[in-house]
Every structure is written in structure tokens, then in C-alpha cells.
Amino acid sequence: MIKCFRCDLGGEYTSNKFCQLLALDGTIHQISCTDTPTQNGVAERKHRHIVETARSLLLSAFVPSEFWGEAILTAVSLINTIPSSHSSGLSPFEKLYGYVPDYSSFRVFGCTCFVLRSHVERSKLSSRSVICVFLGYGEGKKGYRCFDPITQKLYVSRHVVFLEHIPFFSIPSITHSLTKSDLISIDPFSEDSGNDSSPHVRSICTHNFAGTGTLLSGTPEAPFSSTAPQASSEIVDPPPRQSISIRKSTKLPDFAYSCYSLSFTSFLASIHCFVELSSYKEAILDPLWQQAMDEEFSALHKTDTWDLVPLPPGKSVVGCRWVYKIKTNSDGSIERYKARLVAKGYSQQYGMDYEEIFAPVAKMTTIRTFIVVASIRQ
Amino acid sequence: MAPPPGISHDSGYVCKLKKTLYGLKQAPRAWFEKFSIVISSLGFVSSSHDSTLFIKCTDAGRIILSLYVDDMIITGDDIDGISILKTELARRFEMKDLGYLRYFLGIEVAYSPRGYLLSQSKYVADILERTRLTDNKTVDTPIEVNTRYSSSDGLPLIDPTLYRTIVRSLIYLIITRPDIAYVVHVVSQFVASPTTVHWAAILRVLRYLRGTVFQSLLLSSTSFLELRAYSNADHGSNPTDRKSVTGFCIFLSNSLISWKSKKQSIVSQSSTEAEYRAMTFTTKEIFWLCWLLVDM
Lengths: 378, 296
Fold this sequence. Notes:
The structure holds 2 protein chains of 2 kinds. By secondary structure, chain A is an alpha+beta fold.
């Protein structure tokens, strides 16, 4: 039994019929004073919660603010199903119905999705699905609300394929926001709103089509800029999961570098950026590498490393190859191009070509002790 | 050796090597021997407790040189002696003076009046890049508490190469990260046939490392020469062979210089026995460190 009903002076709850209904149950009807929303604080606070959630949904997916209604509906359905610390970790849904809601049906607001066309809409050779923006969950229907800005149609369907990592709209500066007149033609509660093909709507359609074209093909500032050139094909042909993971992991070094000093960052970055060759065929074409190989040769000749002799019968030859390396200074600048002749030691045989091979290296404990002793004596 | 591409030669002729070349099996040994001969001719004596530590004591002071293949650190109180040594080495070998110690074997060294800071942040970043983790999660501990791993858990990995590569990298990372010593000792027991469970353990270490990329080891300059050692052992924790694990860490005053987490070679029948073995192990390390410090 409701004991007391408080509302603002908006007029929605002041009709005679409603007052009579309240009086019938003995509910006290309270109305806040003019221009004093503070007296209706509980409701206003909830509004703030809903509007803030909806705003973040819109902004994070770059959805134009014209879709505020969809965002509010989605926000409310999210708030109702998300566990809240107020009710000791239970969601309002759970509190009401006593069981956990199904979270598996949730999708990223504003993401790109493909809706299967109904049998009536498609012919044998037309495309099976239509590209849409995901805008929420069906009200009273088990389905997703997806809007196609090209045909101005809203679909409520359960046959939807989502590309949750690709927002349908891109950053706001290039988003051709729908004009007021567009908004009138969108009736989110009617599925057939876009069907009347008046000349006015048609012109908007083409406008939007161009708009979405730019949106999808991406710009350097777009969130997925690293794949900007292929972005349009990405929409048609969803990229394999792997490419996404590469994108994420390449972000990490940037994050790590940002914590270093400027000069050290350039050092670390430059270590990665120079290309080192792998074959003699490539190297012989580059004068820089040629010079490097000449240097190595003259060094080998100076130390009199080998004699050219005929191969004794019954003996095998150990191969050799060039290894190319770019040496950097401790500040990251290129010191020199280094070519090194290495023998293919893996084909050597124990007892024939070599015997003892052990060589000691410093123990790390020694090095640490060494540094401590050095720093103490300093 | 087959004549390299780029030199003219008659067919049927090969290069008979009079010196070793990069890539030959005996090359590292030959290099070390060569260096030892040169450095001994300059009056240096190889320490009998770490043969890559070369020491020269004169009236002017003491010079210590630590060699890691072809990288070396030189220190000492005989400034003139050090510069003589450097010119002398530069005359014998083609080498480069990198100045004060900043970057050594992939370890970043930072100096402050409080001491030297050793870190391997770039190395950690490289490992994380190589594994291409798709999320950005971090965890606060390198291993789950009270988890026992055995070689039969989970499904075998199809390609164990990445597992082995990462384990190898992590082992090198222990140089400045005693905090992952234990977990690395665990995961490196399964390199022969790693399974999904072990891979999950590796992923956890990597997530831990991601959160602690910049952790570094301080070798304090306010230390004095006093060794403190701590040792511990568990008892029969390994579910497969019931061997115990030794752990120790040794401080030179307030700088951590030596640590280890190692499975004991023999099954201990009681926790006391396990602890005794751990203490023996630690004591051996202390003895060695004492000798080393005497040498220095």
C-alpha cells in the first residue's frame, strides 16, 4: 500500500482522475513548491543517475545526442540489471524476481551490427542482412533494437550479428548529426516509420549514406586508426580476432615508454625501428652494408684468419654466412652498420672439429656484489 | 670452412681457419683464453672463486674487472691504473668505452647517491610484447596461493616453443627480480611437456610483471660489509616427487645480492631435515660470498 505520493508541479500527476485514484487508496498526494526541485530530491537524484549513465553511453560510442531516448531506455534497463552496492550486491531485477538476470544478452551500446532481413524484405539475391547501429533492448520483446540510418528503419530482432569492438559512429567532429527533421521521422516505437518514401526522407537518406561512408572508413584520429586504410573492408568482412589482439598488445610499449625520460624513450624506440637485413643478396645492393662487409673482410685479412687450401679428401666443410646488425650508441643514434661473418658451427662434430668448449661467464651474484662493493667504496 | 660469398677463389678450395670465427663451437672458449692471457700480462689475477673476476692490487690501489663474454665492468680506487688498463685493452682489442655504468647485459643501471638501481623494464616490456596478451589486466601476486602444479594437469600445449621461450626470458629476468624467483622455479619444471595449466601460470606471472614493470633492485651505497642470510624450506610440497624446496636470500648489509628458490635434490623425511638442507645450501653460498668479498 502506498502511503504517500510526492511529485513535482509538472502536471503529469495532477489530473482529477489520478487524484481520485490516490484518494481511493487513501494515499496522501504531496506536490513540491514552484521552482523547488530539491523537495522532490529522491526522484531528481535517480534522474541524475539515469541521465549520467545515458550520457556516458552516448559519448563513449560517439552516438549522436538525437538518440537520447534510446540511450535513456538502455540506461534504465542496464541500471535495473546491474548489481548495486546499495542492495548488498544484488541488482534491482534480482531483488524483485529473486533470480539472477541473463547477462549474456548484453551488447555494447552503439556498436555496429547486422540484422537479418525478414523474408518479406529480401529477395533471393539481395543481401541477407542490413548494417545497423545497436541502440538497446526490446521493450516487451525479446530482441535487440537496431537502427538503420540509411533507410531510417528501426528493427527489433533477435537475429543480429554484432561487431562489438567497432563503434558504428566515429568521433563527433565528423559525425553528421541528424537534423531535427530527421528526428521527427524516427519513431522509435514504430518499426515501419522509415517506410514512407517521401522526397524529403529520400534526400536525407543519401545525405546519411555519405555521412556513414566517411564514418566507417575512419580518419587518423579515429579510435582504430592503426587499421584506418582497411577499416571500410573491415566492416564488410569482420576481421579475425587476432588482429584485434595485435592492436592491443602494440599499445603496451607506448604506455611503458611514456614513463621514461625523453632521451631514454628515443633510445628504446630507436632500437626497434631500424631494419636489419637477413640475406647477402639484399645486403650486396646497399652501399652502406657493402662498406660494412668490406670492413669485416679487411679485419679478417689483417688478423690472417684463414688460408685458402684445397679441401682434403674425406673432409666436410663448415658453412658460413653473413649476419647484419645495426649498432646503436647508448643514446639511440646509429653508431655503425656492422656486418659479421659467422661460421655455421652447428655442423661441427665433437672430437673431429672441436673438443673443449666450456667458457666461464660472470655469475650475476658476483656482478651484484661487485656493484655494491664499488658503490660502498665510492 | 666454405669460402664466404664475396671473395674470389678457385673451385675446390676452402678456407683453413687459423683463428676461431663467430659461430664456431670453440669460439667462446678461445676468446676467454685469449682475454685471460692478455689480462694476466697486464698484472691481473683471476679470482679463484669466480674466474671471470680479474683483480690487480698495486700500491696505488686496487682494480677489479668483471667479464661477461665480451662485456666488462671495471672499478677500483686506482683511477690512473684504470685509464692505463683501458688504453692497453683498446690497443689489444677493438673495443669501446661506454663511460659510466648505465646499460649492461640488458640491465638498466641508474646511479644516485643512495646507490645503484638495477632494473630490466625494457626486457619486461619485450617479453610482454612477444606474448601479445590481449587484455590489459594486472594481478598483484605472481602465483596463486597454495597451488600445487604437477606435470599431469591440463592438456598438453600443441606448440611448447613459446612456453620455453618465455621461461628462458623469465629466468634471465630473475637477475633483478627476486620476487618472481619462486614462480619461475615452478614453471621451469615443466618445460619438457608444458600444459594449459602451466601456461595459465605463466600468464599470471606476465600480468603480475605488467603491473610491476618498473620495479627495480636497489644496491645501496650506505651499506657496510656485513652479510645477513635468511633461509627457509617447505616440506614435501611437490605432489609428484615429494621433494622440498629451498629458498634463501642474502643481504650485504641492506642490499640484496643473492637469492635462490630451488628444489632439493633428495627427499627429506621431516621438515627439520628439509630445513637443515636449506641451511646447508645457504651456508655454502655464504662461504663462497665471503671468499669473493675477501678477493674484492
